[in-house]
Amino acid sequence: MHVTVFGANGQTGHEIVKQLLQRGHTMTAAVRRPSTVQPLDGVTVCKIDLSDQPSVLATVQGSDAVISALGSGALRSARKKTSLYSDSARAIRAAMRQLDVKKLIVLSSSGVDEEENAPFFYNCIIRRFLMNTYIDMARMETILSESDDLEWTSVRLSYLVECGSKPYKVYDTSIDSSTFRIGFKDAANFVANEVKERKCMRKMATIAYP
Question: Which Pfam families match (predicted)?
Fold first, then answer.
């Protein structure tokens, strides 16, 4: 299977690329700065401009599935108003429809919906700090929910941490009881499996350690 990964140079995106390669897939790594992507066999690096629809179309051409691991970068950037998630969802969806590509996975956040059981520090400080990002992620998920012609999945990541792989749980909606954490490797593992298995098709699936 050939997969296009938007945002392949981020920490999660890079890990997704590695795990897809381990499963025998080939890839197009779509990034704004190709020099930031480590050359790997089986991966074609493509410079992408999301405001230029023909370049998005060319990037998706020949794909069996598309993954958007796009993000706003550092925490300070994530605080600002953004339309990255909703704009990219529209651009990618338009290209997929034109090329009749069906499988789409996007990275979102469990912070899109307020969780009463989340730690006080998160709900009262972190979530408010990142509210602009969460608002646009919600716009992105609305675009997906209106796309019945696509086999989409929104992967709502909890707090990302650097750690070894360990068992995690997939929640269809809210998190009832968890650490509100997920490792980069386990997040990528779920995405790489979902490309083929499609267990959470047309769902906003939250993953976290129990």
Answer: NAD_binding_10
